[in-house]
Amino acid sequence: MTTYKNQLLPNEKVFRDPVHNYIHVQHQVILDLIDSKEFQRLRRIKQLGTSSFTFHGAEHSRFSHSLGVYEITRRICDLFQRNYSIDKIGLGGWDDQERLITLCAALLHDVGHGPYSHTFEHIFQTNHEALTVQIICSPNTEIYQILNKVAVGFPEKVASVIQKTYPNQQVIQMISSQIDADRMDYLLRDAYFTGTEYGTFDLTRILRVIRPYDGGIAFGMNGMHAVEDYIVGRYQMYMQVYFHPTSRGMEVILEHLLQRARECYQNNPEIFLRNSPLLVPFLEGNFTIDDYLRLDDGVLNTYFILWQDEADVLLNDLAYRFLNRKPLKSCRFEENNQTALLQHMQHLVETVGYNPNYYTAVHSSFDLPYDFYRPESNKHRTQIELQEKDGSLVELSKVSQLVKALAGEGQGDHRFYFPKEMVDLSLQDNYDLFGETYKHFASHIHNGALIN
Amino acid sequence: MTTYKNQLLPNEKVFRDPVHNYIHVQHQVILDLIDSKEFQRLRRIKQLGTSSFTFHGAEHSRFSHSLGVYEITRRICDLFQRNYSIDKIGLGGWDDQERLITLCAALLHDVGHGPYSHTFEHIFQTNHEALTVQIICSPNTEIYQILNKVAVGFPEKVASVIQKTYPNQQVIQMISSQIDADRMDYLLRDAYFTGTEYGTFDLTRILRVIRPYDGGIAFGMNGMHAVEDYIVGRYQMYMQVYFHPTSRGMEVILEHLLQRARECYQNNPEIFLRNSPLLVPFLEGNFTIDDYLRLDDGVLNTYFILWQDEADVLLNDLAYRFLNRKPLKSCRFEENNQTALLQHMQHLVETVGYNPNYYTAVHSSFDLPYDFYRPESNKHRTQIELQEKDGSLVELSKVSQLVKALAGEGQGDHRFYFPKEMVDLSLQDNYDLFGETYKHFASHIHNGALIN
Amino acid sequence: MTTYKNQLLPNEKVFRDPVHNYIHVQHQVILDLIDSKEFQRLRRIKQLGTSSFTFHGAEHSRFSHSLGVYEITRRICDLFQRNYSIDKIGLGGWDDQERLITLCAALLHDVGHGPYSHTFEHIFQTNHEALTVQIICSPNTEIYQILNKVAVGFPEKVASVIQKTYPNQQVIQMISSQIDADRMDYLLRDAYFTGTEYGTFDLTRILRVIRPYDGGIAFGMNGMHAVEDYIVGRYQMYMQVYFHPTSRGMEVILEHLLQRARECYQNNPEIFLRNSPLLVPFLEGNFTIDDYLRLDDGVLNTYFILWQDEADVLLNDLAYRFLNRKPLKSCRFEENNQTALLQHMQHLVETVGYNPNYYTAVHSSFDLPYDFYRPESNKHRTQIELQEKDGSLVELSKVSQLVKALAGEGQGDHRFYFPKEMVDLSLQDNYDLFGETYKHFASHIHNGALIN
Amino acid sequence: MTTYKNQLLPNEKVFRDPVHNYIHVQHQVILDLIDSKEFQRLRRIKQLGTSSFTFHGAEHSRFSHSLGVYEITRRICDLFQRNYSIDKIGLGGWDDQERLITLCAALLHDVGHGPYSHTFEHIFQTNHEALTVQIICSPNTEIYQILNKVAVGFPEKVASVIQKTYPNQQVIQMISSQIDADRMDYLLRDAYFTGTEYGTFDLTRILRVIRPYDGGIAFGMNGMHAVEDYIVGRYQMYMQVYFHPTSRGMEVILEHLLQRARECYQNNPEIFLRNSPLLVPFLEGNFTIDDYLRLDDGVLNTYFILWQDEADVLLNDLAYRFLNRKPLKSCRFEENNQTALLQHMQHLVETVGYNPNYYTAVHSSFDLPYDFYRPESNKHRTQIELQEKDGSLVELSKVSQLVKALAGEGQGDHRFYFPKEMVDLSLQDNYDLFGETYKHFASHIHNGALIN
């Protein structure tokens, strides 16, 4: 008898996808998970948050990214089973019994994301990884019920892949390592929807050289340049898309807006009880999974629309700025040497009438494009291994000068944010009063950087 | 002195766009319009409404489409000015004094769209074209104020282009005709974001052959096949994307949901006053421009999330179905011959426990891919003219067999919608009671069509 | 023991291909065929002959097209084996024992092509289909020897697929029907290398709906629009690329050049014995397979370079015009009504000093984009069948208005070719003598067509 | 009166191009140059020589590359004229009087290339740069005559741009520097036709940030990452396409074949006088421009076809191997440490019956992806300059860690080439005699490298 676990759809179901052409679904379990309400909710959460304010095409959802991660994982499983199955190559080979758990983990790895995740988490102390695990393991979610039909304990196993405690390293690394299905999908997808070409790398070629070994996932040495190109593509996407100063300028606005809402709630909860009920549990700091699953980008935006009419000037101005894309401007600064100057600049902003707590910020964005294993580090990374013809492994940065140049060093910048009005003459209504202040402020910014 | 009308940006500003690579903004007026709150609101309204339930990539907004229409129009103006300016070719040539009004009309032509436009308009008797004109001409919108700075009366002129009463036919046809910047952008954009290839046609080639003449816009005869290809691309997009049965199955749900909300409001307005305040003016049938401009997709979805907890079974079930993508199923039927059978089918649906007013529907989607001028028709269309070397004009379907095959005939189908449960055994909990009814129902559907 | 027939490569070998990304070779037999000298020769023969004079990117070879046809066929075999194997669906299913013969026939179907095939065949009465069969079946070709190692009689079986006498219709139609791997590859490949977008259709979607049935190959009804789009793409490629007037103007030059060479050879064979030895057997009308296999585009061009120095004015002028791209100009004409006028026009060409046999031509290019079965026709075509859910078949033009518009009617035009000098003032050195003749000539051409 | 220099075509003429969509020709001079026989000859010379043996799509010609370089240059001139004309920004701005000379130099910069340039030059001591200058400056070429019609001395001026002695550095650097129109076109074009994605970089973005300054060409600082991406793309193309071991294995065959022909000619010139007349001047070491202009890839290949029938075993075997793609195999080695071992390996090859002078080779390929100015170097390179907002310049590797990692260091490898038979058991007919030699040979190759 066909168990639910093995139940294949009579006809494969496909989803048309601009990045992978088709997403192929073959298992009833996977289709049921996609149809669950917790997963459908991801349609209403943008993959890139405030980046769409800079790249207007980037309105794609976490739903489409999750399908993409699933699809890349499925293709890797197919390749592994065809070329490197444990039956064929023995120890270090792929055990296709792991397929379903791998696919489920790939599909669900982001299911705990909420609206504007990064900022929301920061203000409300939520954690999307912990929430992913909770959604998978809470008996009253549809996802739990589907997974539990596969086998008792199966939800927890899927969660353990995401938590990286599952015993099979191949399964874990396929979904979470420095070159995994998650990163491969988001680089390609974000490049497609932003309309940039930086993030494109040769997925077909990567898939030709990926292979299992007893310690996890490796890449054939003949694919070194393809892997190298992926690392460089990743670096370029961070530099040019993810860390774009304008998107971060919107993120700062959002952060200050949510922070202000929390402050207002403490003084005057009625407003929010009346017009932002779904946010109240978070303003209270006491929420359930069910509360969390009701949030999405549209809910927050709806509340921001309503807050524009509230009496609190900061709340309504920040809401207006967020909804209508009025980002803060910025300049680079050096982390250690310019602390005093930053305070001075904030002071100048205050002088012309802005509360610097809400209208200035320092914002640092750094990414480590690649790192090899460092025993002394407390955040271990699985290094990328290349496999020679004789089976021996070589760590990537040993053979790639390009990767070596990027390895181990955070790439990014520190920026100081302030109101556009500070440097845009046409917006300075009070120039006759504060002309000197404005000039002084501007004199400290040169070639886009803060100067002493 | 540079007037606002002629004020060019010191450096052209660009928006990265996946379809046109870059959107180039050169006028201060255009940048100000883009930054207006009425225009920014289009970021929160999906271009394709329920199509994203079928094509998950199609999450692009009316904001990006509007920029795209602007950009194509801008490129046409550049071409016209370079090759066919009135100074150069005289009568029938392009007068570049028309550029700014044309660009403004292109950018703003869809600014009156609201959330899920088609359905919303149907239920609440709004009209996005009339609203576009109102937004442009209402003295307290930011858009009006920007346009009025150009010249007194300028907002009304821009509106008249959209209303097709502006005297210069070239300006009108560039934005609204059977092959205009609007259609060209949406076909390419929707093809890109859905990930289909049907709608692609050769924009560069069309732009090489487009030209002004004294009656409007024509295309060089050597571009006949490019124009033909555009018509076929359009036909394919309608058949395969816009008329997709699943998207329409979701549209039916949405329509019934909003209709149910209106009914509930009449009996019990308190619910909506409490949890759907922004929708109340529409439920009341009495709304202002300002009310309208507060709506977007997220606002409606937020209310649907809340309605899932309301007592009315129809309201909460339909809201659940919409949010979690549970479309009605469908089959084709013939318009005139199957009326009795349709009633019978609805009756069978009712038998097993569904209210047919909410869980069945007939839905017809037809498009006229192309039509030539018909004096007898009351909805005139500007036919597509091809221009011979000697300047004479030939109507497109006279020289293209393909277009002739599509001209004048609506393409599409009539479908009958019903709950998936009617034909999916695994969902029929009450099969022991109604087994015969289900079988009877299924026996009337063959090869996807209703049969007697 | 592994026989040669079943011998798989230890590691699949791939060829990077711009159209299909990778060509995957799994059988030793296929790799050996690709490495044979008769197949390698296809690298030196352009796929599109004189089209590269119009579309300079179209320099791709028959080698790359042949690999592409092989690859599409391989993918279809994989799909058939996975979803419709005879073991699974019984009668009408795919028998994977046919795979190798199908792949060999796909790879070799064009191996008999020579340089500038169409023109060469016309002048020297060769036939590339007959030559394909001969190359496969001649015991001293490398190809024969490879195929004969598979099994005695195997070369003849492969040839019978190309000759359409092989018993299994699925095998034949995969390679030769109105929608086969051959056409699918050349449309996509020629579109890619010319840089046009007309020929693109959605191969992935076609491959999703293609299926075997007991009479050959059919397509699922849900893929109707994809098949329709392929027919339209094909029509567009013929109209815009294959029938381009300039390419045909070069073809006319080539044809007259080869014809002149044959005439010269009859009077004065020594020239050719000395400087064009590889062409002599064809000028003699008596050649072997081995002679044929020594020809390629470069050989003919080399001889044309040498002929530029020969005394015969026609031979050297035509060679110069061909090598240096001096096409004849042309205008459309109507087949039946303009015979007398054509003679008159030729007479005018003669008047100003050109031999009309070499410097004028009529050239007709017509294609039947699609046809259904016509018992009365002596050139039967396998019609395209769509398969309903219940297994019944419907002929394509019955359900597609677009295809119906193209079915059964040749598309193309008749053109009259003449020297550019006839209509280009700047080239008319003898205008004072023949000014009236030139004016008279020009007066009969209007909007690109011959007029009375 | 319109002079030839200023004569614009009544209608711009376009060439469809897969890489740049359209090549736009506006000047009569440019059209005439394209139509010249010396330029048309470039159609018959492959851009990438033996690379098409590895990447079968790479059959594109130097003709298409030359058009591409012209087109990029034309676009840069347009941008410079629109945004940075000398009239507008003064000193350091672009003088549009330089347009025609720049376009001519761009179009003609490769006109001196012959068949299989690199190898041919090496064997016959020709030099394509010197020949380019000669073709431009020789009074009896069509190109000279066209240029001289522009103005007396104009051909020499165009040549001086190519020789880098022209006074305007902007003109020179547009065509020849580390990031010029030449490199930009070939990277994109070669990536397109090989079907790889490595070489793609964002041309539109580079064109947005390129600008003139008084010392030549610079790039806006905000385009740093686009320039960086170009450098990395270039590096990847060299590593993966231009230096591909198989293409180099074919190049070695070609080099030995031409070398053998020269040796044979010295002993027995009659053969070549009879069957390779166009090559004789080069075998003699005494050729004219006219001799050179008669050569192309097809001419050489035609001679190779004939040489297959000659008595000299080396000549005919090497010709067979080249025509039928039988490359030598190879392994990496270390330049300084393995000289003795290389000799030993050659000896082993000789032992089993191959003349090591013709069947082995060492081949080193290195490229310097980028270098900054080094006063001590005798081959100066124009470093890439980025321009800050205040106009100051910063050298690229100062701000890009990636470029710094590649700067100043040659990237590539040394390879030892030998007959495939040495390591392929299935080809070793004399294994019983030389089994130990073969094993010994193979034992010195491990993971693709020579080991002691």
UniProtKB/TrEMBL annotation, chains A, B, C, D:
It holds the Pfam family HD_assoc_2. InterPro entries: dGTPase-like (IPR050135), HD/PDEase_dom (IPR003607), HD_assoc_2 (IPR045509), HD_domain (IPR006674). One of its GO terms (molecular function) is dGTPase activity. It comes from Enterococcus alcedinis. Transmembrane segments: none annotated. Residues 58-196 form the HD/PDEase domain. The lineage of its organism: Bacteria, Bacillati, Bacillota, Bacilli, Lactobacillales. This is Phosphohydrolase. GO terms for biological process: dGTP catabolic process.
